[in-house]
Design a protein that fits this description.
The structure holds two protein chains of two kinds. Chain A is mainly alpha-helical. Chain A contains eleven helices and three strands, in the order ααβββααααααααα. In chain A, a hairpin with a 2-residue loop joins strand 1 and strand 2. Chain A is elongated. Chain B has six helices and no strands. Classes of the chains: A mainly alpha, B mainly alpha.
Chain lengths: 258, 150
């Protein structure tokens, strides 16, 4: 009986950790969470090892070593899920939740509430547009960056559903944002309004740039998590290379044809 | 006046990024205000400091401190306040111009911009780590009336 509950607790902790890691939680937070959830059910030592691509948990059941491993594909960044998983782990390790309650909450964690689509795209336009204004863009450039970032986030959402390779997905993202910006700048110059392409394209690119993975990776490195930090930094580096590739193709094409 | 308009722009920008990252709705105001304050620190320092690292470093320390305090107040993990707040410092311009110079066959300029972007990213991370460590150190005094966990 004790063995079954402990195995279930490990499985639940693993599932929670996977959901957190997929949605962009830091490595140390995932390790702490899994450790806390399992340690609340057993007195024997628990070892958790988390990388950005997988989780290994080692525990002791009746003195026998027990290890589980799972691969974790990255999805993106979802702060709502991180907050919910965090509070779920606190409740789980404090009290006695029944198996049914745990299942229900895990199901909720897998499909978190999202902002409705119009709100999401309206506000993602705001993110890119106001970023351009912060770096001294004009009003025309703001409007163009607003539209371009909104459409870029929309198409990236569509590409994420297709489960593309992350490198190809980001090349397409860079390509789309550069094409949109160039197209819009040309349209506007036809209406005899001035807009600088180099300023406009920053808006949609900012919604794609891996700033969070980069800073999280460096944070992991600083705190001594060398493997986790390196993998995060590498992911960020290759996303940046992919974006540069996508934008670069468009710029080269323009240099060649115009 | 310049600082006020910059503050408003950064507030709206951080709100936008909070929605992209699916921040819980009731936490959006706090996160965006912390981002705005950090950006104002950045702008003020940018006008006076000669180094390109200091503004991003001080700004992210500020965002980290506000985020950690908000985390204690709201009993939520601190990252969900810090991640939207540091986005304005992320060297998007630097990354774009690095790529631009590479296409332009101007490799020495690409190295300069790329290096600057990398050091800005490192200074952001250092700032956040410093803020987190400071708060970890003084948290027992701040939480003396609570149960010590959040």
């Amino acid at each position: 009986m004790e063995e079954m509950t402990l195995k279930k607790a490990i499985a639940t902790a693993m599932e929670t950790g996977m959901i957190m890691l997929q949605n962009g939680a830091e490595t140390y937070r995932v390790e702490e969470t899994i450790n806390r959830m399992i340690s609340s059910k057993t007195n024997s030592p628990v070892e958790v090892f988390v990388m950005s691509t997988g989780i290994i948990v080692g525990a002791h059941i009746n003195g026998e070593p027990y290890t589980t491993v799972s691969r974790v594909p990255s999805i993106g960044l979802d702060l709502e899920t991180i907050a919910r998983a965090n509070s779920f782990s606190r409740i789980f390790s404090q009290g006695d939740m029944t198996q049914e309650e745990t299942e229900i909450i895990l199901g909720e964690l897998r499909s978190p509430p999202k902002f409705s689509k119009p709100i999401r795209y309206a506000f993602s336009g705001m993110a890119g547009g106001f970023f351009v204004l912060m770096f001294g863009g004009s009003f025309v450039e703001f409007v163009l960056a607003y539209l371009a970032s909104s459409i870029t986030v929309f198409s990236m959402d569509k590409l994420t559903v297709r489960k593309l390779n992350f490198f190809v997905k980001n090349i397409l993202g860079g390509l789309i944002s550069a094409l949109l910006s160039i197209f819009m700048v040309f349209m506007v110059s036809g209406l005899s309004m001035a807009a600088d392409f180099n300023t406009v394209i920053i808006g949609p690119l900012m919604t794609l740039v891996p700033g969070v993975s980069l800073t999280n990776g460096i944070r992991d490195l600083i705190s001594g998590e060398l493997i986790a930090g390196t993998t995060k930094m590498m992911e960020a580096l290759f996303i940046a290379i992919a974006l540069a590739f996508g934008v670069g193709i468009v710029l080269q094409g323009i240099i060649a044809f115009i | 006046m310049y600082i006020i308009t910059q503050g408003i722009y950064s507030l709206l920008c951080v709100i936008g990024f909070s929605i992209i990252f699916n921040l819980p709705r009731r936490l959006v105001p706090l996160a965006s205000i912390s981002g705005m304050l950090g950006w104002i620190v950045y702008i003020i320092l940018q006008q006076t400091a000669t180094s390109f690292i200091i503004p991003a470093f001080a700004g992210s320390i500020f965002v980290g401190l506000v985020g950690e305090l908000a985390a204690i107040y709201k009993k939520q993990p601190a990252t969900i306040f810090i991640i939207p707040g540091i986005i304005p410092f992320v060297p998007g311009y630097g990354i774009y111009y690095t790529m631009f110079h590479i296409i332009d066959n101007n490799f020495s300029q690409a190295l300069v911009t790329g290096g600057e972007s990398l050091f800005i990213a490192i200074s952001i991370a250092c700032g956040v780590v410093i803020a987190t460590s400071v708060i970890r150190y003084i948290r027992p005094y701040l939480m003396s009336q609570g149960d010590g966990s959040f």
